[in-house]
């Protein structure tokens, strides 16, 4: 996959069905769609995509990450 701004290449993925997730459009493909906060995207072995809103609301309080 290559555009004037972005290029992605993978030998491992070129030999098998694969899906690429991008945080911004990589080209003019109308199938690109923003993934909403709280949305889970699943791609199965046949590259069928399902999208579910698993966290429909923001948390009541924010929490800090701990190490």
Radius of gyration: 16 Å
Work out the number of β strands.
Answer: 2
Which regions contain 5 or more consecutive residues with pLDDT less than 50? none
Measured distance between first and last alpha carbons: 37 Å
Number of domains: 1
Q: What strand line-up does the widest sheet have? A: 1-2
Largest sheet: 2 strands, antiparallel
Please work out how many helical segments DSSP would assign.
1
Oligomer: single chain
- The H-and-E topology, N to C, reads as HEE
Helix content: under 10%
| Average predicted local confidence, pLDDT | 83
Strand content: 5-15%
EC number: 2.6.-.-
Protein name: Glutamine amidotransferase domain protein
GO molecular function: transferase activity
Organism: Mycobacterium xenopi 4042
Name a few traits of the molecule.
extended, two-stranded antiparallel sheet, 2 strands
Describe the structure.
The protein has one helix and two strands; from the N terminus they run αββ. The protein is mostly beta strands. It has one domain (1-55). A two-stranded antiparallel sheet has the order 1-2. A hairpin with a 5-residue loop joins strand 1 (39-43) and strand 2 (49-53). The radius of gyration is 16 Å and the shape is extended. The chain starts with 10 loop residues before the first helix and ends in a 14-residue tail after the last strand. GO terms for molecular function: transferase activity. It comes from Mycobacterium xenopi 4042. Its EC number is 2.6.-.-.
């Amino acid at each position: 996959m290559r555009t004037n701004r972005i290029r992605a290449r993978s030998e491992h993925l070129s030999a098998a069905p694969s899906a690429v997730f991008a945080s911004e459009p990589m080209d003019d493909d109308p199938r690109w769609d923003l993934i909403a906060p709280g949305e889970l995207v699943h791609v199965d072995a046949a590259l069928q995509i399902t999208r579910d809103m698993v966290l429909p609301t923001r948390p009541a309080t924010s929490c800090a990450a701990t190490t």
